[in-house]
Amino acid sequence: MWQSSPKNIALSPTDIHVWKVSLNISLNSQNDFWLTLSEDEKLRANRFRFPHLRVRYIAARGTLRALLGQYLSVLPIEIQFSYGEQGKPFLTDFPDFKFNISHSEDLAVFAFAKEITLGIDVEFINPKIDTEVIAPRFFSKNEAATLLKLSPLKRPPVFFNCWTRKEAFIKAKGGGLSIPLDQFEVTLLPEDTPQLLAIDWAPEEVENWSIFSFNVGPEFVGALMTDGNIDKVAYFSFT
Length: 239
Known about the structure:
With 239 residues, this protein is α+β, with helices and mostly antiparallel strands. It folds into 2 domains: 12-117, CATH 3.90.470.20; 121-228, CATH 3.90.470.20. Helix content is 30%, strand content 28%. It contains 6 helices and 12 strands. The strands form 4 sheets. Strands 1-12-2-6-5 form a 5-stranded mixed β-sheet. Helix 1 (27-34) crosses helix 3 (51-72) and helix 4 (131-138) packs antiparallel against helix 5 (141-148). The chain is globular and about 50 Å long. The chain starts with a strand and ends with a strand. The relative contact order is 0.19.
């Protein structure tokens, strides 16, 4: 599923590229990435109290700039970000080029497309998650009921199947916390096709969206949400 980094990145208007990246990087890579960051990014990096979180931030932002530089044929340091009302980033000089990023623990995922709205999320499967408390609070009634029918040992990966799909949708919409998680519904069981089932405030939108789940390792689960006509999702490992 995951391919090595291609020598030349070519992205067609109906394709999406997903990249996975380890945020554990060498000191040399940290220094190289640091030189490409904006002053705002450097200030944010220096606010982290714990060194490993600072390194992860530098790795994520540096990798994002490196990949965008390849796609757009610009120097990573020249890339400028702007932010929507709910904080969703976009490219100041390339507003039609879409991207999204998510990270959990020491892993990050990136999604890129031309003019296709998208959102991506990855989560570490925490086996200690309190599904009986969190699911009824944040999931739809059907989602919570489906999850809580399972034995406690089987719930964590299914919980995060649901969570990543819902987060990916919120990020694609760019609505942030203004979109209630319990007001739309997704499939969550491993045997079910990833799908957006219902949107309470806009039922007619359901058919516009597609969900792609992907495996990034035994302890993680990931999801990509897109609109528009998608021919192919390609998956790459950044090295």
